[in-house]
Amino acid sequence: MKIQIILAGIGGQGILFALKILTELGLKLGLDVMGSETHGMSQRGGSVIAHLKLGGYQSPMIRTGTADILFAFDGNEAYRSLKFLKKNGLCIINLENIDLFDGAVLKHLRKKEITVMVYDAGGKAIKIGSVRSANILLLGFSVGTGLFPFKHKDLGEVIGAVSKQKDREANLKAFEIGVLDGKQKKIDF
């Protein structure tokens, strides 16, 4: 298996923890793992983008138009990172609903046959009383949709293994809630 994933958001949203989870997942599955991350001007609130390649790649950076999946932990960062997605790619956005996304951009994505799914991971994190779990909810949601090419069991085991003891229970609960929500969701676009 070869897959290229972009994780984009702003500082403080747990992008680097999500990157760690997906990196460990790749290692658990015996895949070659290569990645890179860039941070904005500020640690909290600045743009953060992570590139992750699983499989036999030669360089860590993902070129424009070649990413299989984009996880956008912030709607505005989704706009900045859409250029990385290839035709027939998958875009999963932390956003309340698809109506909040620009119609002209959606029209462009339709031409590129990009599947777009939105999930209000931030809102759900507040509802379950675990504000810091939006990143885990979004990963769980992706697995639940059936569009993310990894197994629920494998990702859950990795989340349990890499989470700090004090966060493990909350992270696993958030993951399972995201999975259930993903199973009930239809493709937005």
User: How many beta-strand segments?
Assistant: 6
Q: How many angstroms separate the termini?
A: 26 Å
What gyration radius follows from the Cα positions, in whole Å? 15 Å
Q: Number of folding domains?
A: 1
CATH class: Alpha Beta
Q: Spatial order of the strands in the main sheet? A: 2-3-1-4-5-6
- Can you give the mean pLDDT? 93
Most strands sheet: 6 strands, mixed
Q: Give the CATH H-level superfamily.
A: Pyruvate-ferredoxin oxidoreductase, PFOR, domain III
CATH topology: Pyruvate-ferredoxin Oxidoreductase, domain 3
The fraction of residues assigned to DSSP E strands is 15-25%
* Helix/sheet category: alpha/beta
Helix content: 40-55%
Verbal overview:
With 189 residues, the chain is α/β, with parallel strands linked by helices. It has one domain: Pyruvate-ferredoxin oxidoreductase, PFOR, domain III (Pyruvate-ferredoxin Oxidoreductase, domain 3). 42% of the residues lie in helices and 23% in strands. It contains 7 helices and 6 strands. The chain has a 6-stranded mixed beta sheet with strand order 2-3-1-4-5-6, with helices on both faces. Helix 1 crosses helix 6, helix 5 runs parallel beside helix 7 and helix 6 runs antiparallel to helix 7. It is globular, with a radius of gyration of 15 Å. The two termini are 26 Å apart. The mean pLDDT is 93.
Quick summary:
The protein has 189 residues and is α/β, with parallel strands linked by helices. It has helices at 15-28, 75-81, 103-111, 121-127, 134-145, 152-162, 165-184; strands spanning 3-10, 33-39, 47-54, 67-72, 85-94, 115-119.
